[in-house]
Amino acid sequence: MNHSEHPLSGVDVGNAVRRLENLGLVAVVCARDVPAARRLARSHPGYLAVEPPELIGGDRAVSSARPDVITGSVAAVHRVAPRTRVLCGAGVHDRRDVRRALELGSDGVLVASAVTRAADPKAALEELLAGY
């Protein structure tokens, strides 16, 4: 069975968040959609990243393909955990994606493949930072 069929319980995530905090680390919890973001926000992580799985590593950013997931998640998370910062992930490749994510209410972006797969990772990072 895959992870989406048996997600971690809120208790498990909450315990992991507290353990990380006790170690002086900050938790980044990832949610696939608005209901998952709402549920996971109850653990009060430092950061909650919204990443629809079908867009991870792809060519379309969640900010353009599914903007409602960002706005809905930001609202849901802030109702439950006002101090949790919401990040936008999945398909973020350039400054336009970053700007759009910020316009939709996210506090920042979570990236991986846009940098790790880039021919010039430094240039990729500079392009993303230009969106701020």
Summarize the helices and strands and which ones pair or pack:
Elements: H1 10-22, E1 28-31, H2 34-41, E2 47-50, H3 62-65, H4 67-80, E3 85-89, H5 95-103, E4 108-110, H6 113-116, H7 121-129
Parallel strand pairs: 1-2, 2-3, 3-4
Helix pairs in contact: 2-4
Termini distance?
Answer: 40 Å
Number of helices: 7
Q: Give the tally of structural domains.
A: 1
Oligomer: single chain
What's the SSE pattern? Answer: HEHEHHEHEHH
What's the CATH architecture name? Answer: Alpha-Beta Barrel
* The CATH topology: TIM Barrel
Number of distinct beta strands: 4
In spatial order, strands of the major sheet run: 1-2-3-4
**What is the beta-strand fraction?**
5-15%
Structural class: alpha/beta
> Class, according to the CATH hierarchy?
Alpha Beta
Radius of gyration: 15 Å
Instruction: Please tell me the overall pLDDT.
Output: 91
Uncertain stretches: 1-6
- Helical percent range? 40-55%
Global outline: globular
Structure, briefly:
Helix content is 46%, strand content 12%. By secondary structure, it is α/β, with parallel strands linked by helices.
Molecular structure report:
- The protein is of the alpha/beta class.
- It has one domain (10-129): TIM Barrel (Alpha-Beta Barrel).
- Helices cover 46% and strands 12% of the residues.
- The chain has 7 helices and 4 strands, in the order H-E-H-E-H-H-E-H-E-H-H.
- It has helices at 10-22, 34-41, 62-65, 67-80, 95-103, 113-116, 121-129; strands at 28-31, 47-50, 85-89, 108-110.
- It has a 4-stranded parallel sheet with strand order 1-2-3-4, with helices on one face.
- Strand 1, helix 2 (34-41) and strand 2 (47-50) form a beta-alpha-beta unit.
- It is globular.
- Residues 1-6 have low confidence and may be disordered.
